[in-house]
Design goal:
mainly alpha, two-stranded antiparallel ribbon, 35% helix, binds zinc ion
């Protein structure tokens, strides 16, 4: 082991400790891909090839959606703040036209 001893707990380790179910789901996906049981697919929104497995239900670790980083983040944003800012004024429509 060549890891420095000064850092008691990394953010990732902390996340793993606090989210054992999610961690397990991620490991299950990785291992299924390695064994050829699960196929990595392009982003279902934009077709990008670099994708993350997004879990809709962590109790079903192989039930995933394939999303690129950008769309993966977008899905989590939507999940965290449902119907956010529906009433916020649209800056384009606020009457200020500086042609
Ligand atoms: Zn995408
Ligand atoms: Zn996700």
């Amino acid at each position: 082991m060549t890891e420095p001893q000064e850092i008691p707990i990394t953010r990732q380790k902390r996340w793993q400790n606090e989210n054992p179910l999610k961690r397990w789901a991620h490991i299950a996906v990785q291992s299924a891909i390695n064994r050829g049981l699960l196929e990595r697919k392009p982003c279902e929104v934009c077709g990008a090839e670099r994708t993350d497995a997004h879990h809709t239900d962590y109790h079903r670790p192989l039930s995933v959606r394939w999303l690129c980083r950008k769309h993966h983040i977008a899905v989590h944003r939507e999940a965290e703040q449902p119907e956010a800012d529906q009433s916020a004024p649209d800056p384009e429509a606020s009457g200020k036209h500086n042609a």
